[in-house]
Specification:
two-stranded antiparallel ribbon, 3 domains, alpha+beta, flat
Length: 253
């Protein structure tokens, strides 16, 4: 089992930060330590106060560094990842995404490594890909599939446990597998929420663009339109000369 260490710099060339706790060489313990911080800036502030990094390194990225044949780097996790590392929560979140074809494609691609013969997830990945093909053949409409349910259960189990010895009945936690799957689900949900917020903000800006210029003060709208339809309605009234700003329902609110 490799020793994991906290590093700072580029992914290819991160300087190892020497923490004084020997137990932090285990990935699970190191994650527990970094998840005490809300984000990278908070963790770097702590490391700076302890004299473990230089002020010039504050703009650099933090990594988890380990050696497996060669030195490799993986991402650091913070407080918002803690719940995703609970197998029950992770299972629920993954199942909730079972009708999201983009996610299923990402999941199948992530676990499509090596040859079919030597990939422990091969059967599960194949079932997921068959479901994606069926959905596309069905006009893109997701539907309940027992085979997909079985495949997702199998994928989760394979990812978060590993065989201990020669018996398939003797399973133990595979923390690295749990962590990798948790990051995959967490990052997908986070990026999806960011995209939704961006789309929502663009819609708000479009609504503002429909407000007549007379209703702006110092470049800012005096009222937010409740919808694009409402903004267009008021613009039409203004153009017909049937409404002054004093008549607007939001005026004097």
């Amino acid at each position: 089992m490799p020793n994991y260490k906290l590093g700072i710099g580029t992914k290819e060339n991160a300087r190892v930060i020497e923490l004084d706790n020997p137990s932090l060489k285990e990935l699970k313990n190191l994650d527990t330590f970094t998840m005490e911080s809300s984000n990278a800036d908070e963790l770097k502030a702590y490391l700076l106060a302890k004299g473990l990094i230089d002020i010039k390194e504050l703009k650099k990225n933090l990594w988890i560094v380990y050696r497996h044949v060669e030195v490799k780097s993986i991402k650091v996790v913070y407080r918002d990842m803690k719940k995703y590392l609970d197998p029950s929560y992770l299972r629920a979140r993954l199942k909730s995404l079972s009708s999201d074809i983009k996610f299923l494609e990402k999941l199948a691609n992530y676990y499509s490594v090596g040859s079919y013969k030597f990939n422990p997830q091969a059967v599960n990945v194949s079932a997921i890909r068959l479901y994606i093909i069926d959905v596309r053949s069905n006009g893109g409409r997701p539907f309940y599939s027992k085979s997909l349910d079985i495949a997702l259960d199998g994928l989760i189990e394979r990812a978060i446990t590993r065989q201990d010895g020669f018996s398939e009945q003797n399973l133990k936690e595979n923390y690295r597998g749990l962590r990798d799957l948790a990051i995959l689900v967490h990052d997908y949900e986070l990026n999806t929420k960011k995209l939704e917020r961006k789309t929502e903000n663009e819609e708000i800006q479009n609504n503002y663009s429909n407000i007549p210029r007379e209703y702006y003060v110092d470049g800012e709208p005096m009222f937010p339109p409740n919808s694009e339809e409402e903004a267009n309605y008021f613009r039409t009234l203004e153009e017909l000369g049937e409404m002054d700003i004093e008549d607007h329902p939001h005026f004097n609110r």
